[in-house]
């Protein structure tokens, strides 16, 4: 593999890592000869566990509903709150979980699109020269 090319100002980087040197997480154990020659039992157990940890189970990634509100930043929580209350507190018991999620998605996108159209109209009506 060729060394990464570092771009100057205005130059494009032609690297899969965008100019950052890639690192190997396997260390010296990626080479079979090195793995077999100098490993003790503790290193073999570590290597076996590391390989086992690299395989994902069919249930991953795991979604934990209790933690999902903590994953949103405060600004996003603020602007999502009104529609979340309408769709998930009021309408979900009547129409079900999936229709409430779909309705929340499309109504939210529709309102953002409408808001964008209004801002564009306002700009061209009052600010555009």
Automatic annotation (TrEMBL):
Name the GO cellular-component terms.
mitochondrion
**InterPro entries under this entry?**
NADH_DH_b-subcmplx_su6 (IPR019174)
Task: List where the protein spans the membrane.
Answer: 106-124
Supply the alphabetized keyword list.
Membrane, Transmembrane, Transmembrane helix
Q: Which GO terms describe its biological process?
A: mitochondrial electron transport, NADH to ubiquinone
Protein's recorded name: NADH dehydrogenase [ubiquinone] 1 beta subcomplex subunit 6
């Amino acid at each position: 593999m060729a060394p990464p090319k570092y771009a100057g100002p205005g130059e494009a980087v032609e690297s899969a890592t965008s100019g950052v040197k890639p690192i190997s997480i396997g260390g010296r154990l990626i080479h079979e000869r090195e793995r077999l020659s100098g490993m003790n039992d503790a290193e073999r157990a570590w290597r076996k566990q590391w390989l086992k940890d690299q395989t994902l189970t069919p249930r991953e990634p795991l979604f934990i509903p209790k933690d999902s509100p903590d994953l949103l930043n405060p600004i996003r929580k603020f602007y999502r709150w009104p529609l979340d209350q309408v769709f998930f507190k009021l309408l979900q018991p009547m129409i079900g979980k999936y229709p409430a999620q779909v309705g929340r998605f499309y109504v939210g996108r529709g309102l953002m699109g409408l808001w964008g159209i209004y801002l564009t109209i306002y700009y061209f009506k009052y600010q555009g020269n």
